[in-house]
Amino acid sequence: MKMIQRFKKAIQEYHHLSQEAMAAFLEIVKPEIIQKGAVFLQQGQIPKSYAYIDRGLFSYFHTFENGDVVIKKFFAENSFVASTSALIQEKPGLFTIKALEETHILVYQNSDYRVLLKQFPEIAFFHINYLEKNWVVAKEPLEINLKYESAKIRYGQFQQEYKNIENRLKQHQIASYLGITPTQLSRIRKTVKN
């Protein structure tokens, strides 16, 4: 029951839903537990669902043909995760979503969700507000920083954005997110401490 309450609160942070809209939304969600190391979505698959994270942690990454991994984002408690672009286009996704810890989620199918978006304008406003905040506004500075800022500055920005989960991540995961090697990250951490 607490999971549902946290889900409702997370939605309301983006847009207020009427009781009727919220009840309809709750009818399409189902709880799941994704074990540590398990994949919620594999790169190359056509995604079918969204998820709200109640407890746990996901990495959202792309693996290149040579085996290099680039982590685009981390998703922790009280956030929504999906391969959004692939869901919209109904095409195979470029990213894998993998549990870094045992992760408790509420899953809802895209097909059911699309029905609700048409039926309840306030759910559509929730969706728009979520996309604008997390995939438009938050994305622009990251794109600039990745191309122009030093690795040390990017690490400082990472620490601000992910201050609540940094201690839950391994060094190679943070390095992959920053686009540097673990050795480079180790050097940066030493200079930051001094």
Total number of distinct structural domains = 2
Shape: globular
Strand order of the largest sheet: 1-8-3-6
SSE-based structural type: alpha+beta
The rounded Rg comes to: 18 Å
Q: In DSSP terms, counting alpha (H) and pi (I) runs of 4 or more, how many helices?
A: 9
How would you describe this structure in keywords?
9 helices; alpha+beta; 22% strand; Jelly Rolls
Describe this protein's structure:
This protein has helices spanning 2-12, 19-27, 84-89, 110-119, 121-137, 139-148, 151-161, 171-178, 182-193; strands at 29-34, 39-41, 49-55, 58-63, 69-75, 79-81, 96-99, 103-109. A hairpin with a 5-residue loop joins strand 4 (58-63) and strand 5. The longest helix is centred in the middle third of the chain and has 17 residues, at 121-137. By secondary structure, it is an alpha+beta fold. It has a 4-stranded antiparallel β-sheet. It has a 4-stranded antiparallel β-sheet with strand order 2-7-4-5. The protein starts with a helix and ends with a helix. It is globular and about 55 Å long. It folds into 2 domains: 2-120, Sandwich (Jelly Rolls); 138-194. Residues 13-134 form the Cyclic nucleotide-binding domain. Residues 148-175 form a coiled coil. This is Crp/Fnr family transcriptional regulator. It comes from Zunongwangia pacifica. Keywords: Coiled coil.
